[in-house]
Amino acid sequence: MFETKSGVFLIAGLFFFAIAFLGNALVPMMMYRDLPELTAEQLVNPHVMEHFRDLSERYPESFEEHFVLGPTEENCAEALRLGRSVYVGEACWHCHSQFVRPVGNETVRWGPVAETWEYQNELQRPVLFGTRRVGPDLSREAARRSNDWHAAHFYRPVDTSPGSVMPEYPWLFDGAVYRPNKRGLALITYMQFLGTQLPTYPYYERWESDLDGLHPGVGIPKERWEQMQRAYRGAEEASTSASIEEDDNTDSPATEGDEKKEDAS
Ligand code: HEC
């Protein structure tokens, strides 16, 4: 048997099949054997509810239209399910992973390394590990950004992230960025869920502390924010001085007119 080429291929084939079966079927079965699989309802927690309620206040018209009973836990579970299927349907997983690896300082960027039990729930059937990372990992996305940041970003990513290659998703809105539709609201809820399961949530203390009163919820590094503020103020000053100059040029007749008015009164 080993003398023939086909014999070698047969043995090699069986060997690789056995390894794949062990790695992809037996090991996961053993790892998940004692962990109950959670439903979307069981995944609803106070953190994601906070964001769900915020959505109902921020976009009251859209929210009342699509979630008639308001920000209840049942509605939140429904939003999580729908949000996940939008995530799958729009192929977000093509560019985003949901798995923090213990290598390459990933924990510095995205928080704690992913653990087995995090994937033992309805929203990870099948698992959304993702295959590549054109964009950042999203498994700890909750509270990194505010709800309206997500809305603006889904509507037109380059508005919040200049140069972004992420596609626009205008069909998640009823014609305007301030009117996310049901799928839009659900996807934002799903983003605000990712990571809330872990006891160490939230990962972005910066969200609350560093940016105090400046721009809550955006979660961009402080230095970058200050840099943007300076650029913004610079632009504002430039535009006011430009308009003063303009006024100067056209001033004489207007001033004459004003003087005449004053005279008349
Ligand atoms: C073509 C690849 C691509 C696709 C498809 C894509 N994204 Fe992105 N995404 C990116 C890139 C690149 C960034 C980083 C720049 C930016 O913020 O837009 C990003 C950033 C993000 C962020 C911000 C992460 C953060 O906090 O910095 C979120 C949230 C996000 N994407 C969600 C989604 C969702 C949900 C979908 C599907 C509806 C999606 N993305 C589809 C490439 C993609």
From TrEMBL:
Residues covered by region (Disordered): 229-265
InterPro entries: Cyt_c-like_dom_sf (IPR036909), Cyt_c_oxidase_monohaem-su/FixO (IPR003468)
Keyword Membrane: yes
UniProt keyword Membrane present: yes
Spans traversing the lipid bilayer: 6-27
Keyword list, A-Z: Membrane, Transmembrane, Transmembrane helix
One Pfam family of this chain: FixO
Gene3D superfamilies according to UniProt: Cytochrome c-like domain
Entry's Gene Ontology molecular function annotations: electron transfer activity; heme binding
Source domain of life: Bacteria
UniProt name for this protein: Cytochrome C oxidase, mono-heme subunit/FixO
Organism: Kolteria novifilia
Classification lineage: Bacteria, Pseudomonadati, Planctomycetota, Planctomycetia, Kolteriales
